[in-house]
## 1
Amino acid sequence: MAERGKAAAGMGWPFGPLVQLLALTAQRREGVAGMTWEEIDIDRALWTIPNWTVHDLRRTATTGMAQLRIPPHVTDKVLNHKSGSIRGVAAVYNRRSYLDERRGALEMWGKRVMSLVERAPIPVPNETRHPSPTHHEERG
């Protein structure tokens, strides 16, 4: 890393500082290259990073569902992942779509999002919640 840092310093403007910031911040090349002065607070030595993608919303939802104790296999189904947490023989034989569990997960996630928007906390379950099947119990 030291050699790369020295090489970056020797590159000069604009690529040297760009490479140094990439190494120091672990941000995407486009985000660092597109940085604007409005994003920088010199007094606080702070860069407010605005670069996110639509895919980040899926990552945020997955992380949030994990915090809500929603089982990973249900989250995988919500995201339409074909090779998620159920693998191997179980994935071959388990054809259930977990419709009711997905519905329950999305309802919980929706409440969480609304609580963030409205700034009102909602309780996080202490243990894994498995929404009970209702009238949509599926067959393989």
## 2
Amino acid sequence: MAEIPALKRRLIQEGVDVIDIGAGDADLAPPRAAVEALARAARDPAMSRYAFQLQQYVPHFPRERMLVVASEALRNDRKATVRGVCAFLGVDDAFVPPSLAREFYRSQNRPVYPSALWTVRRAVRRRIPAAKRAKELVDSLGRSVRRSDVAAADDQSGNGAAETGIPAVVRSALEDLLREDVGRLRSFLGPEFDGWGIA
């Protein structure tokens, strides 16, 4: 994604009429119907059933035209995985994107704020959607607090915000709910797929 703005600037400099349909920063709240639809989808267990979702394409696309890649393959051997995707698509598999080594959206890179600062950030985001600068201020304040300080403060406050693991009872329920689907996912990912330890 980092290459897109540079490509756009270059094309404009070359005189190409570029139509940018990017979403940008919203200045209005999203439509209530959209928020409700997303909330319903998030609660729908089928959204986590990958084999179920993939099966919807089988009647429309021959299986040999489908390539399914586990996120673990990208994380553990990005170069080989990207080359495999390129080869599958019939493009030059020697191409290595310059951003290949960079990992995006890692949980450990997400900001960690004291509970009070999270409250302020959520309030700013909810009540003043266009206030990007205010959110950046809150983010910069959050970066000045070390993660260990946040964890210690949250542990002392007893609010449990520092806890990042899934409770055993929830994990067990999710495994039971998804076990069959994860087992069927092997038909898309092959026998080397470990079933994430649940199937």
